[in-house]
Amino acid sequence: MNTLWFLAALGVPLIWGIQAVMLKFGIGEFPPIFMVSLRFLLMFILLAPFLGRLKGKFSKTLPIGLAQGVAHFALLYIGFKFVSVSTGMIVYQTNALFTIMLGAFFLNEKMSKQSLLGVAICLVGVAMIIGIPQENTNIAGLFIIAASAFMFAIGNIFVRKDGPFDPVGLNASVSMIAFPSLLAVSFFTEEGQIESLQNASLEAWGALLYTAVLGGVVAFILWYKLLSKFSVDKISPYSLLMPFFAMLGSIAILGEHVSVSNWVGAFITVAGVAIIQFGHQLLKIKEIKILKKT
Predict the structure, then answer these.
(1) Which end of the chain is more exposed for a tag (fewer CB within 10 A), N or C?
(2) Residue 190, class by beta-carbon neighbours within 10 Å (0-12 exposed, 13-18 middle, 19+ buried)?
């Protein structure tokens, strides 16, 4: 992975980390599933001209759309209705572990020792970011977020198994599958959709636009492109950086206080990702030095 792809891999969790903060503005005024259906509707309007890029692979995008577009996002938005940004983000990081385990089981992808070490260090750092959950933590909400993470991992496996896909075409297809499905689910399970459209504030509309354009189009195109070029054990651990960026976003946007232990955890998480990224190179340098000495 060169520097440009490394920066892209960092950019995705940055966008998604801030998106977790934006969600709090949106789901406070829109019903959760209705909001995510609007998100995919906006995405489809932007991406519809690119559907032709799939070149005969449209049928293979159906399970991706159902897993990552419908199930994953419906559960994610519902979950964040009941939990804090930091707590929800740490539970959501289980998507990296789910992806790696499913990749090893279904795709026979081998995990390097460096990847295992990096993931372990990342998990330690992420755990320090949120600390021990408080007594008032909504356990059901945490399980809903975990289920969302599992569905995201399933989508990742379909992308790896049936791809490579054109990332823009894939995102357009997922949007086309997701927005009518989620809209139907919303009208069967939620209420107040029309009222929310009439009464939503500028902050809520801004949150919707952020999740659709940056979180939905830009970040997902980068994510699918990364998955098409690199194995899941190299890419999925970068999602562990989302709590770090969500923490920074909560400070800048929500004015939340962050403890020293949170900052230490953030830097440990970054160190874990660095091991995943540069571990092989460090081993090669070490081996070269040993050979020179001998």
Answers:
(1) C
(2) middle
